[in-house]
Amino acid sequence: MLSAVESVIGEPLANLITTRNSYINRVYEVVVKSSRQQLIVKFYREGRWTTDQILEEHALLYRMKACELLVIPPRAFNGQSLFFVDKIPFAVYPKMGGRALDEFTQDGWIQLGRLLGRFHALSQTQQVSSRIKWHPDTASSRHLEILLNDKHLPEDYKEPLKRVVGQFLQIARRQFETEPLFLIHGDCHKGNLIHSPDEGVYLIEFDDCV
Q1: pLDDT higher than 90, residue 96
Q2: Which helix (H) or strand (E) holds 43?
Q3: pTM metric for this prediction
Q4: Quick check: 72 and 4 in contact, CB under 8 A?
Q5: Is the pLDDT of residue 6 over 90?
Q6: What stretch of H or E contains 54?
Q7: pLDDT digits over 72-87, tens only?
Q8: Which of 120, 133, 154, 157 fits a 20 to 30 Å CA distance from 114?
């Protein structure tokens, strides 16, 4: 991992690696040996996203940053933001100082609402996307199928579950027929928010953008 990152940034790293919390990917904090600069390196789960999907995520972050939204785009080296080691994609990010949010004040809710509103206004200008669509037929239907095929679900539960969820899906499909689709974060919870006292609330981890 150190060798892969060093080959990208062109500088040696200190032998200090800190594992960061991540449910899907593998994320590490490393330190540039000469400058002591701290970097966050994200190794994406192989096969979960296509290269186009990851590059779209990066391009979206650069657009948001250019519009002065509080996000953290990956660093680019020689004009590239995505790299590979043994077919595993990875990206290098600057470490952002701040703290996790345990509770929201009224002002905090307003800041978050403003950030999400500006993000959605920007994402609605993007007409074409390679990201997956959250739709009853592509999300909920597939999840139901997984549950029905699971051996741990008692047999006498399956038919009622299929019937009730099927009724819900019929209602949900009608709601989606008239609604325009645009990119959303896809994993917006407190763990993906960082509060910087001097700047405000940063929104991070866009790899589940849909």
Answers
A1: no
A2: strand 38-43
A3: 0.86
A4: no
A5: yes
A6: helix 51-66
A7: 999 999 999 999 999 9
A8: 133
